[in-house]
Structure formats: structure tokens, C-alpha cells
Amino acid sequence: MINKVVADADVAIADITDGKTLMLGGFGLCGIPENCIKSLVKKGVKELTCISNNAGVDDFGIGLMLQGKQVKKMVASYVGENAEFERQLLSGELEVELIPQGTLATRCLAAGYGMPAIFTPAGVGTEVAEGKEVRNFKGKDYLMEYAFDADFAIVKAWKGDTAGNLIFRSTSRNFNPIMAMAGKITIAEVEELVEVGELDPDHIHTPGIYVHRIFQGKDYEKRIEQRTVRSKA
């Protein structure tokens, strides 16, 4: 069994250079690869294309990369919590491709399955369809959307083993498993790293065949993006 463990986030992302395309797992601030993002910020790599559900917030997650002007293009389905993102978009500093959330997920899946493209009804007749091929199947129009072509997928899991098998916890599962399948090189950071054989095979969400590097992360903040509580009676 191949041991895929690397020392830390700095080592894991060492060969990510300017101009690369990255997938980053997470939904809001839930299940984001915090350690790898911090290492990318520290390294200062530039001109990145980032594929993620959203752009984090101003002082956390991908928002830190936006502050450092490291992101050239953002491909996402939701971007509403980041003032710096809004500023860069309106000023023309940042290229943005907004994608329906289901289409984002399915383009990840297509890349993982080795499919070049998918057909979806989402976006037909809207700005999303501009410049894209439309085909009609059984009387209904569908957009052709290409599978993503990402140099790296960076994901965060709850537990993993030295062979790269991953288990995600609750809602942090979100985009992480499908992105783990889709990158040319997949990097996984985990809260708990164990030896091969310690994970129940029936509980593994992502088989290690998809993962190229794994390390145990540290100092996770696990912030809550929007805290909502009931008012006192």
C-alpha cells in the first residue's frame, strides 16, 4: 500500500505555481481546506483560477487569497458574503464565472468520471447560456457544459489514512468528495490521520485511489459564517 503522507500543508502545495487552476472543497466556511489556503497565502502564488462553491469571507478562506490579489478568476455558484470580492469584480480586477450550483457539482463529477461534457437544462434561455451549445432532447433544450479541467483539487476531511482513504463528517462532506475525484493531483488535509486498516471500509467516502497527498492539519478554526439563534422568549 502506497504511503501518501506528506509533512504539512507547505509541502503539500509546494508545486502549485502561478497560473494554476485549483478546486477548493467546502460550502460557505464548512469543510474548507484551511491549512492549505494559509500556505498558499504565505507562498504568494498568483494568477490562480479557483473553482469553489463560494469565495469565503473577507478575512478567512479564499477571502484571504483575494486580499492578496492571488486569484485571477473565480468560478463559483455563490459569492454574496465577501466585500473584497465585490470590489474586485466591480472594478474589473477579478474575472468571475457564476454557475448554477447543480451544474458546478455535475461538472466536478464529469471530470471525476472521465466524461468530457454534460447536458443540463439549468441556465437555458439565460445569460448562463450565452456562447454555449444547446441541444434538444425529446423536445427539451439542454446546455452543453464542459467538465472542469483542474490542475489540483484541495479538500478537507475529518479522518483519513496513510493510503489516502477519506471520511467526511456531516455537512462538511459537501463538495469535497466530488472535487477529490476531479483534480489531476488531489491534496487532502484531515483532522485525524490513522494507519491503513483503521477505517471501516463501509464508512469511507473517498477511496485513496483519488488522493495523491495527505497530511494531518492543525489549528482548525471552523468558523460559522452566519450565526442565527432564536430570540429569548
UniProtKB/TrEMBL annotation:
Keyword Transcription in annotation: no
Single GO molecular function: transferase activity
UniProt KW keywords: Transferase
Entries under InterPro entries matching the protein: 3-oxoacid_CoA-transf_A, CoA_trans_fam_I, CoA_transf_BS, NagB/RpiA_transferase-like
Signal peptide: none
PROSITE patterns: COA_TRANSF_1
SMART domains noted in UniProt: CoA_trans
The protein, known as: CoA transferase subunit A
Native species: Pedobacter montanisoli
